Structure formats: structure tokens, C-alpha cells
Amino acid sequence: MTPLTTAMAFAVAAFAAATVIAVPAASEAQVRSNAQAEQSRAIAVRSSRPGHPLSGRYVSESGEAFIFDGTGARPLFRFERRNETWVLRTTPAPRGDVIYRNDAGSQILRLTPSGGLTLYTTRAPNGSPATLSGGAAPLNLPPITPTQLITYSIQQSGRMSAALGHLVVVDVELERPGLEPVVAETITVVTEAILRMSRSATVRDRVGDLRRIRIQEADRGSVRFSDGTLLITIAGDQGLQGRPSSALIIRAVAHGD
């Protein structure tokens, strides 16, 4: 894997310096959304671990669809029109309710003892009841080869460079094989965060300083932004749980954490 570090850094830099490809931000999410909707009609609803709602596709009264996967050690969540998978943690609430939060502490779901599920978003900050609409495939990380990872990094570098109007290099530093799926998911999350910030009037100036994204392996996931470099560390053995979410990335860039 040592050559992968150098290969990715130079391949991304050479490609992005030569041409900045503008990829529609919603295209990838729309393809995934259509695929998930098709899957929901063909896949049976699955049971979850005790204490969680059924695993499947849900639709809230506010019109937002999402996938909940409670089959693993940590519950997973993904909006149908987004590319990021959230790793949720549970905390008890009054009346026996359970609150599901992301790694930034934001409330995403609330489950009542009777099984009622409520979704919390910027569109519905006070909560919107959600109902199960069908099955959905597990939110597992798909396999990816080192060559595919390099290609994907180049593509996402192009998207971020186009959004910010200058070169953004993705530099992956790994010492052992087998972490490609987690790294690819991390690049997806970083890209989503950068594209969202590029469209935000409040943090666009901050993210405009970004020139390099470094992804390294460590004992735990973390994010730090300084001198134009966004340093992401991942605990590859922990899978999705081992990398920071877009919420933490946005916080780091906005506040210089």
C-alpha cells in the first residue's frame, strides 16, 4: 500500500491541475436514490437488534425519505438523496423514549416505546413523524480496489476543485491494505461537506482557504483544519464508525478546530 500514497497524491494533483471537471452535485445522490427506491420495492423489511425500529426505508411527513439499518453493532442512517451514511448513538429520553444522535451530537431520530419514529432535520426542526414504507439493502461498505480508489479520489478532487474554483488535492497516506472501502467512504463524506460549505454564505470564505485534504490512519477518527489543509484521521478497523461525519468536518472548517 505504500506506493498508493504517492500514486494517489500525484495522480490527483496532475488531473486536477490539468482540468477541473464540474460534476452535478445531485447526480450521484439521485442515482443512489432511484436505486434505493427500486430496492425498497423488492427487498423485504428486516428486523433490527433489540430496542431499534425495523430496518428499512422510511418516509417522513415532511417528505424526506431515509434508510435505517439497525442490524449492526451501531445503527446506521442515510437520507435517500444523500451519499453519506451516519453512524448513530442512542441516549435515553423522558417517558422511555430513545434519541438517536450523530457524532456531532445532533438529534436525528426519536423513538417512542410504542414504536413511533420522528425525524429531525433543518426542514423539520421540531420533528416530523416517519413511517416504514418498505425494505432496503443493508448500509454496508461496498468493496473497492486500490485502483478504483485512486480513480474515485481523482473524480471527487475534481468536484471539490470545481466548487471552490481552485485546485484541491486529495492525499491518502495508508500503511496497510484492506482500508480502501473506509477511505472511499471518507472521501465521499469530505466531498459532501465541502460542496455544502461552498454553497453556504456563512462558511464559504473559510472553506475557500482549503488546498489539500490529507487522510491518515490513527487509533480514532478525528478532523482538523489549519493552514489550508484538512487533516482527516480514520480508525480503519472500526469501519464507518472510525471516520468523522460531515457535521464534524464542517465544524472543524468553520471554527478552525
Number of helices: 6
| SSE run | HHEEEEEEEEEHEHHEEEH
Radius of gyration based on Cα positions: 19 Å
Low-confidence stretches: 1-27
Termini separation comes to 30 Å
The 3D shape can be described as globular
Counting structural domains, the number is 2
Biggest sheet: strands side by side, in what order? Answer: 4-3-2-1-9-8-7-6-5
Say how many strands there are. 13
Helical residues, percent: 25-40%
Largest sheet: 9 strands, antiparallel
Calculate the mean pLDDT score and round it. Answer: 85
Structural class by sheet pairing and helices: alpha+beta
Our estimate of the beta-strand percent is 15-25%
What labels describe this entry?
disordered N terminus; 24% strand; globular; 2 domains; single chain; 6 helices; 13 strands; 4-stranded mixed sheet; 257 residues; 9-stranded antiparallel sheet; alpha+beta
Question: What layout of secondary structure does this protein have?
Answer:
Elements: H1 2-18, H2 27-42, E1 56-60, E2 65-69, E3 76-79, E4 86-87, E5 89-92, E6 98-101, E7 107-111, E8 117-119, E9 128-134, H3 146-164, E10 169-173, H4 180-198, H5 204-207, E11 212-217, E12 222-226, E13 229-234, H6 246-255
Parallel strand pairs: 10-11, 11-13
Antiparallel strand pairs: 1-2, 1-9, 2-3, 3-4, 5-6, 6-7, 7-8, 8-9, 12-13
Helix pairs in contact: 1-3, 3-4, 4-6
